[in-house]
Structures are given as structure tokens and as C-alpha cells.
Amino acid sequence: MAESGSPISDRSDSSDPPESPHQIIARRRNRLVNIIKQNDLAQLRQFIASCSPEAVIVPGSPYLEDTLFNAASYGSPEALRIILEVYTAAPDVVERFNPKFCLLLDACGAANIEVVRFILDCHDSPENQLPLGPVDLHQRDDSGDTPIIAAAASLMNFDKAADEVEDETEWIQDRIARGNQLIHLLLDRGCPATDVIPPLPNDLRPGGSQVQDSVLGLAVSRANAPLIQRLIDSGADIYLKHQHLHHGMVPFQLRSTKGHVYDVTTLHLASFFYNPDAVKLLLDHQDCKNNTNPDLPSSRDSDGRLPLHWAASGPGAFNCRLLDKQLRITETIRLLLDHDSTGVNLVDNTGSTPLHYAAISHTMCSYSQHAELAIRTLLEYGADPRIPDGSGRTVLHLLGYHSTQCEPIETTLLDIILSHGANINHAENNGKTPLHVFAQNLRQVSAAKFLIERGADFRARNTLRETPFHAAARGIFNDHVRRDLRDEEVTTATKIRLQDEIMRALQEAAGEDTAVSLWQSLTFWKALAIGFALLNLKTLPLVWHIRVYRYFFQNGYLLTPAVKQSPKPSTDLLKPKSIFTRAPIMEIDMNMHKSNSTYFSDLDVSRTALMCSLVIKGSALLEKRLQKQGKRGPLHFVLGGVYTSFKREIPAYMKYEVQSHIASYDSKWIYIVTYFLTPRTGKKASADSDEVRRKRLLAVSISKYVLKKGRYTVPPSDAFEAAGYAPLIAPAANGTVNGSLTQRKEVKSGRAWDDNSEWQQLQKEILKGKEMVQPFVDQEEKLLDDYMEKMKLPAFA
């Protein structure tokens, strides 16, 4: 079970920045896991002897590899024994961390048959003292898995260990062989071949009552014929219908509005993974005399797809890395079509035929001949390349769209498709012809030139009045993914060379004058680009800086402010400040309304407008006082935290108001509440005399600011008094007012400070605001305390 590679060495470069405790734990755990996968027992014993039991026993997390899981999945029996002895020797540590594990399921899930035998033998031995966890061949975990279900799943789902080996082909063959042997072992031990993962309770979705998985449904992916025959003979139902969740890279997922599909039979799954042995056995059982069950080859899933659609698609992703001869694509498709060829041109609920899926799926396998194998076979059995899918795209369009990371498509394949009647100038629903698509795909210049030579119309225009010249000018040149999954570097020089090449081919076909006139028409796009920029001016680079800094300048930031400010009414301190703006298209998300992330740039502008209006004009007096106290450094205000709640969406280009006001402050923080507002519409709203009720709330935010003079925290009351507001007394942390409200009279231009009643009103509003923002303050402290507690760090100061 040893995997190739070398263990991660200890950190030794003293020039690197110091690591956090969490980084040290993760690095040591990664090294331990690597040693386990290599089955280096001497180094494993040395590692364990050099560290505390906690380094081995601490359970895994999304950010920390789990020791026992890796030992059971990828280690040897002896490595697992050594790890378990650490658990036996440190019961106090085990009790403290209380790790939850199920070694038998983990080993079955990775087809680690040697470890499975070790666990079963130890469990059967009366002398065993190792903590093996639950060892019950019929017990289910929280996901519904049993050991035999997990073993069958090891054939369908290859884990990340495949990425860590040098000889991938050998690893795959060994994994499949181990999986087959393991399922035989579990059957010998009495595990039922009829095991299933039952449906979720109270699943009200269509098909929610069907099983999630079954032993046979998982095993038909890559099990050999003797094992499949044994499962069927042991009672496994070949007609059982399953739910199935497609992987994100599966072509089916690209053409489905939902992840789950129902009414999936074992023949669908066997075809999906190109297992001709399983397909043949299932078809043979179908053909038995007196069989009154539904016909498997004509069974459709909930998306209307036949097993042939599934075979044409394939699982994508990992299978792309297998050699063509190992996949047995042709053999699987032939078995299905030899049994019944009437489904070769049937469409599913998206309007797609098996030929469409073959073009999508196998073209995505950029370094193989999968596409040619599948498409040739389907055409041989009568697949019609003229049939468009639900978007009006033919197989030629799909080859162009899904080959942006591929090797150049062989022109022989395109020639075969055309020879079977494909329309070279068929336009999809948006008016694009195959030449539009291939001209834009700079990795397929040779294919585009071939289409031009075969008479593709270079003058064809799509619904936007664009020709293939426009498409080539917008050329796409994506990374090239090789069989080892490493991207080939994309250079600007290569892109320019390929773009010039396709342009020359189009010019030669159209003639120099036509090409020049079409190039001149591209000035339309320049005007369009300028218009687009103007409509999205708010989101352009540096515009945010202009929007923010304008309020510094408007409030005299570059001027020398008066040392003394005229007294202002105390209640003016709490008056709101509004800005008005719109949501341009660049701020619109996939749901066609203003993206939540863009609210914060508007918050920056609104809060800056408020703070500048309150603080800047008194900054000179405040600077003078602080310098007398020996405080050095620039005077500035800093955002300390934000909480935002979204109430209603903001559609594109709707005008809205961002209104900010001070809710409260204490000896350190200024708390600002911001409302996103828009006027209500309708007769009732316009007749309302209350200005507040005439507005609709879109979002609300609470922010806190701190004033700094270098490293010194400036009390907000000092800044407000310097700006001309009456001497203010900030509420204490417990919400009460520190000291008495002493009235201080200062006269300038014949006007006195506010009377005591106005002060009291202001203090009342400040205390009210303090109560409002206190939950925000408390929650922030709880989050920080929780983080520090989890990290076992000192309390946050």
C-alpha cells in the first residue's frame, strides 16, 4: 500500500517568518500522513517517539489531515498498528479529544484490503487490545454507508491518492483489482449484496423515495464480470432505480438545472463508466426468457436520457486521464447500439442527442482521441450530425465551444462529420455558425482554416451583426491542459501569432478590400466600449478614490482651518449625511441585482462624507492640543468593523440614497448607522407627509470608527468639541454617563453654547444609540473570544 513520493521535511530555513501554532501542527501532521502513505515504519516510529501523543491523536478537520483516516485508507496494517498503540498508551489524551473514527469504513472506502483483513482478524482475536472503533459488517454510518457499500464506492470514486503516484495506470489497475477482491471478501463474510443507502427521510422531491446508492449500482462502474455475476446471483436487483448526483465537471451537469437525477438504472451507471463486461451481463439478463421487467436499454432517467446518452457523455474529469484503450468507449457504445440502435438520435429533455454529449464530453479530454472514437462509432450507427440541440447548436458548434484547452482537433474528424451530412453553415439560435465559434477559439486555428477551405461562409452574421472576423478579433486562447493535468504556459506572443494566422486565412478567403472594411467596422466596438465605461463610471479604476477624497477637499482638508470654530448646536452632531448614487451593470451579480460585496464601496463614501463634515474643520485645534500633550504622528480615522443586513435587492441603474449618521460613541469608538434607501412609489406613499415613511429600506449597516494620532487613540468627544460642538460626555462601557453634565459657556460672535436641555436631549439620543449598537459590540467580542479560545491563545486585548 505504499505510495510514491518523499515525506515533507521539517522546516529549517531560519529566514522564513515564524510559524503560528496552527501552522506548526498542520506541518507536522502533513509529515506524519506522508510517512504513513510511504509505509516507512522506521521513520514512523521515530516520528512518534519525537513528539507528544497529541500530535498523533488530535482529530482531523477541514484544515488538518486525520491520522487514523489516512492510516486506514492508505497505510499498511503494521503502520495502523503503530498508530493505534499510541491511542492505547495515552488514554487520557484520547478521552480529552474523544476522536470519532470508523477504521473499517475508511479502509473499505479506499479498497485497502490488507488493512480490512487486519481489522477483521484483530477484532476476531480475543487477545486484541487495539482501539479499532466499531467493527460491524452491517453497521451504517451517518451517511448510510456500510462496509460493502463503501467498498463498492471505491470502484466508482477514485480519491486524491491517484494524483500522488508516478505510474497512474498501474495505480488504477491495482485499485480496481483490490476493490474487486475486497467485495468478494465482504460477501464471504456475510455482507449482503442487496445493501443500499436508503433515501433521505422526508425527501419530498420527485424521485426522493428512490435509493441513493446500492452495492450493484456502485460496483457496475468498474467491477469485473465474475463479481457482477456473483452480486446478481446473490439477489442484487438490476432494475432498481437510483438517485444520482453528477460531479460538477460531468457534461450532464452543464446541461441540467439540478444536480440530482432520478430513475437511474444499473445499465445507466455501467454505461456511464464504460464497463462493457457489466453492460453485457445486464443485457444478457434482460434478454432472458419470460422476463417481464422494463427494457433497460430504453429506460430513461428523469432528464429523459437513455443509457446510450450516459455512455456518450462518460464521467469526465478523472477518466480523461486514462489512455484510450483502457476506457473501452467503443466497445460499450457498440454493445448498446447492437442491442437497440433506435435511440441513436433520440433527444433528452434539453434537446441533446448522444452525439451532442460525445462532442461535449470527449472534447473536454483535451489530450486524447476520445472524441474521435465516440463520434465515429455513433456516426457509424446512424447518428445525424444535422440535429441541433435546444440552443440550435450542432455537433460542429459543440466541438468548437468545448475545445478551448484541447490539442487541435483532427481535420479528419471534421471531414467525417461533414461527410455524414452536417451543415457547415448552420446557425444556432444566436446566429453563430461553426466558423464563428472556431475562429474565436485560437487553439483550433487549423479547424477554422479547414472549415474555410470547405466553404464556410465568412460573411455570415450573427444576431449582433458580427462576422467571423469579429469573432477572431475577440480570440480566446486558454491554458492547454495536458494528460498530467499541468497547464502549458500561455504567452502573448503565441496568442498574437495564432490570431494573425486566422485573420490571414479569413482575409485570403474574403479578399483584401472586404477584410479592410470589416476591420473598419470594429470602430463600432470602440464606441461601444466608451459608452460601456461611461455607464459604469463608478466602478472604473481610481473612481472610488475620487469619490472618497472629494469630501476631504470639500471640508477644507488642503486649507488651513481656523483654530477656533463657531459653536454649533449639539444635536447637529447626530444629523444624517446622505449621498445619492446608482447601481451600474458592473455591480450587478448573477441574480441581476446589486452584488452584496459592492455595498461596501458605497459605505466607504457615505461614512467618509459624514466623518469629514464632523471632524476635519476642527482638526487644527485638535492637533494643537494633542501636540501639547506630546502626541506625535498623523491624525486620521480608521474603520474598525462593519455589520450589514440586506433587506431588498437593488436592480441595475436604480437610484438610491446612502444615509449615514452617528448613533453613539464611547471613549474610543464612534458608531455609525447607515441606511440604503429609495423612495416609495404609489399614491399612498406620495400622499404621506412623513418623509421617513416615504422611503423604502434596502439595507442597513453598523460601522465603528476610531480616531488616531499616530498610535494614540483620540477620544471622540475631544474631536467633536474641537470641531465646535458643545463639550460632550461619552457614555461609559456600562451605558451610563460618566460624571455630571456640567455646562461650559464659550462665546464667539455673540452666540453661546447650547443650553442644558439641548445637552440632555443629545445625551439621551447617544445612550439610546449605545443600547442599539451594543449587541453588535457584544457579538464582535464573543467572536474574538471564541477564536482565541479555539486557538488556545491569550484573550484578545
From TrEMBL:
It holds the Pfam family Ank_2. Residues 1-22 are annotated as: Disordered. It comes from the Eukaryota. Gene3D superfamilies: Ankyrin repeat-containing domain. InterPro entries: Ankyrin_rpt, Ankyrin_rpt-contain_sf, HotDog_dom_sf, THEM6_lcsJ_thioesterase. ANK repeats lie at residues 350-390, 430-463. PROSITE patterns: ANK_REP_REGION (PS50297), ANK_REPEAT (PS50088). Keywords: ANK repeat. The keyword Membrane does not apply. SUPFAM superfamilies: Ankyrin repeat, Thioesterase/thiol ester dehydrase-isomerase. Belongs to the lcsJ thioesterase family. This is Uncharacterized protein. It comes from Aspergillus turcosus.
